[in-house]
Each structure stands twice: as C-alpha cells, then as structure tokens.
Amino acid sequence: MASVLVTGAAGFIGSHVAERLLARGETVVGLDNFDGFYPRPLKERNLEGPRASDRFQLVEGDLRDGEAMRALFERRRPDRVIHLAAKAGVRPSILDPVAYVETNVNGTLNLLRACQAHPVRHFVIASSSSVYGDAAKVPFSEDDRTDEPASPYAATKKACEGLCFTYHRLLQIPFTCLRFFTVFGPRQRPDLAINKFVRLVETGQPLPFYGDGTTSRDYTYVGDTVTGILAALDNPDGYQIYNLGRSDPVSLREMVATVERVTGKQATLDRQPDQPGDVRTTYADISKAQARLGYEPQVGFEEGMRRFVEWWRAAQG
C-alpha cells in the first residue's frame, strides 16, 4: 500500500502531520531518532495519537546513517516523503555547527540518495524563514535573495534547498521546499520562546527579554502550518518553494503582553542584550501559497496562544 514517510515524526510538527495524514486515511511510516535535544518522554507523548492507528509504523533510526536510510526505503517503499527531521535552533547551531551540518545537510543527502535508488512521487522538505537572514525588505518573498544566512542553522537549510534542486534535476521528480515561520501551538518544543515564556510566567520565574522588545516574528499556528504542508504534498509541481507564515508579525513586547493576558499572570523581565544569530524580524509574503495551494491561515496569534496555554496546563497534570 502507498505510504508517506514522515521524518521527525515524534517531534512537534511531525506528530501533528502524522495525525492529520492518518485522519484522512493515509498509511504513514514515521522516522525519528529521539535526539536528546529535549526529553524522550515528551516525544513519546507526541506519538500517542499516531500509535493508536494500525496504519502508522514507527521506525527508530538516524538520518546520518546512510545504509539505514537505504534499507528503510528498500523495506518500506514510501511513495511520498515529508522531511521534517533536523537539528533546529539558531543559537545552538552557533555553538555546535558541525552537528547541524552532519544532521541537516548530510542527513538530507542520505534521504536523497535513498530516493535515487527507490524514487518517490513527491519529496516535501521543511526549510525555514531563517534563510532570508536579516533582510531589510519585508515581507519576505520566495524570490528574494537568500545568500546571507545569519546562523549555521540557516545556512544548513539553504544548503538543503540547493540539494533538493539538484536532485530534482537528477531524478526528475517533484520537490517542494516549505519555509516555516515560527510555528507554535500544542506540543511546541520546550526550548522555543512561547513554551519557555509560558512556563516561566506560570511558575513565577523571570523571562529572558532580549533587546528593546521591538524584534518581531511571524508566529504561525501549527494547525495552519500542517494544512499548508498537506496542501503542498497534494500539489507536486516541479521544484517549488513556498512561505508558510501568517503574514502578521508580532513584536517581542506584544508577545509577552499576550502571554500575560492569556495566563492572567504578570511577567517579570530579565533584560538581556540582543543575541548573536537573531534577526530583527520575520515576515512572510504568503501570496504564492495562497494562489497555488489555497493556503489561508485561520488561527490568529492570541487565539493560538490560548490554545497553547490550555494544552500546556493540561500537560502538567
């Protein structure tokens, strides 16, 4: 039976993608190596929904193991791939760039070589808004220059886009690169700002507040991002790049104020300087995804924050 390989299936976005695919009747092969970047029990909890389906199979394996990836494709024969697995995070990539290249670039290359031996109908890969660097022109369009990444993480994502173009030409199969813009919502990684800020406010601890609070991010609710991923999966079209954002940036100052409103608690700020590798703003031009994929974000920032806080409080019990 035709199946979709979802890499990073135990992660934040991957587990939501697996659930949505299963809900529409797909057979899903999930790949994850349960990297220790955050605790394995959180990832196991993410998989509770997918594991309830007999159309879901989990393979524990590492992208960096080329032989294992070739064996996975030989054994499971997926006909489509949604490649979400990666080492994530701008600041950690500055401290350990080698690990980011090994996982994000070499790991992706291993998947592409497996596709060379066992071709698929469509390869969808998670890229990132970080490829735009600290661009002055906003909103960010897919046609903008992306040759000035501000962190090793961003550079690896740009490299993956290039590899996918190369293998599109070599294999003559469709590739779609999706540039995500600060995805948030239930199951978000504990190191990311919204999860961290909610946790600190709820427990009465000070928040690290970088710079003057005017930096902004195009926060995108996970359900909207997943809708965009599946729309892209269903619309292979040569080699394409799409922004998946909300096209409505929120400043750090407003983000903290929203956390205070939805939790009903006052934040204590630990003011710190701007961090290396961070950019001033991210802001998606989503007109291409709207026109070609029918992508229309439905969940506003404050509503998404309310849903996240509700999930976070339930998860503590």
CATH architecture: 3-Layer(aba) Sandwich
Mean pLDDT: 95
Named CATH topology:
Rossmann fold
Q: SSE order in H/E notation?
A: EHEHHEHEHHEHEEHEEEHEEHEHH
Overall morphology: globular
Poorly predicted segments: none
Query: Rg to the nearest angstrom?
Result: 19 Å
β-strand number: 13
Name the CATH homologous superfamily: NAD(P)-binding Rossmann-like Domain
Q: Helical residue percent?
A: 40-55%
Number of domains: 1
- Counted by DSSP, the helix tally is 12
Structural class: alpha/beta
Across the major sheet, the strand order is 3-2-1-4-5-6-11
- CATH class category name: Alpha Beta
Strand content: 15-25%
Question: Could you give a short account of the major beta sheet?
Answer: 7 strands, parallel
Give the topology.
Blueprint: E1 3-7, H1 12-23, E2 27-32, H2 40-46, H3 48-51, E3 56-60, H4 66-76, E4 80-83, H5 90-95, H6 97-117, E5 122-128, H7 152-171, E6 175-180, E7 183-184, H8 193-202, E8 207-210, E9 216-217, E10 220-221, H9 222-233, E11 239-244, E12 250-251, H10 252-263, E13 269-272, H11 287-293, H12 301-316
Parallel strand pairs: 1-2, 1-4, 2-3, 4-5, 5-6, 6-11, 7-10, 8-13
Antiparallel strand pairs: 9-12
Helix pairs in contact: 1-9, 4-6, 6-7, 8-10, 8-12, 10-12
Offer a concise description of the structure:
The strands form four sheets. A seven-stranded parallel sheet has the order 3-2-1-4-5-6-11, sandwiched between helices. A two-stranded parallel sheet has the order 7-10. A two-stranded parallel sheet has the order 8-13.
